[in-house]
Amino acid sequence: MTPPIVDWAQESVLVTGGRGFLGRHVVAALKKLRPRSLWAPTHVQLDLLVRRRVERFLQKHRPGVVFHLAADVGGIGANVAHGGRFAYANLVMGAELLEACRKSGVRRVVVASTTCTYPADAPVPLRVADWWDGYPARETAPYGLAKKMLFVLGEGFRREHGLSSSHVILANLYGEGDHFDEKDAHVIPALIRRFVEAKSSGAKEVICWGTGGPTREFLYVSDAAQGLVLAAEKDEGLDPLNLGSGEEITIRDLAAMIAAAVRYTGMVRFDPTRPDGQMRRCLESSAARALGFAPSVTLRAGIARTVRWMEKLLRREVP
Fold it and tell me: Catalytic one among 118, 135, 143, 264?
């Protein structure tokens, strides 16, 4: 099913989660395309857990293209502690939105998804062909399965009602604007904060979770935003679309890279009693490359930018 042609100048666009980390970058990318109207409501303006509010918003504003980026998400610790909340919130938000899109005649939906949808033992790099061949990693399965179910729902609505949707599986995102509180932060902002604070306090060592052996792929947030816009324009949506940078790195080497960027000279130690998560996670992204996706920010350059942003922000927190 070929995606409908997107003439941004004629489109009314809704971005859920448009005030969040990824959402702000997607909104910025869309503004450059000058859509007819662009909506990025707050949670108060559009509570995706309440059906009547979702339906009322879409009936009032009649968007033709919807980017679903809103999510209840966090790092491994948050996933372990709040699996029930993550499963419920992400499933219900996405389901209510897709149902409202179907009813209100939305032409195109792009859903941001996650590598947590892949089986825990899937071969690496992760290929869409292996997506259904097992259960996700236990630590993040509630979140991953909720997101996976949105593909099932979108596929059903495509077959039954002709709703055109794409589900974009993103590598781990990072960059300016990320949140970095200790309980919920993902690995890069959490590590940057630890190293910045350790340098500031003169701490002789920084302790990191796990063994340091697992590998991850990271995608700079502005590159992810460009990829999502590209998916709206070109992806047929018959399968999930992997979107990654192509750079795989161990957490140990990542920590060393961040320590160097922060100019921290103390010891880095890993705590193997803390969970590692999946041992490898890297996407096979040839389908996105075939659409024209080309990341512009390397991991080293992106970390340097993110460190500079976070150092300025943390200095403002000091009274």
Answer: 143
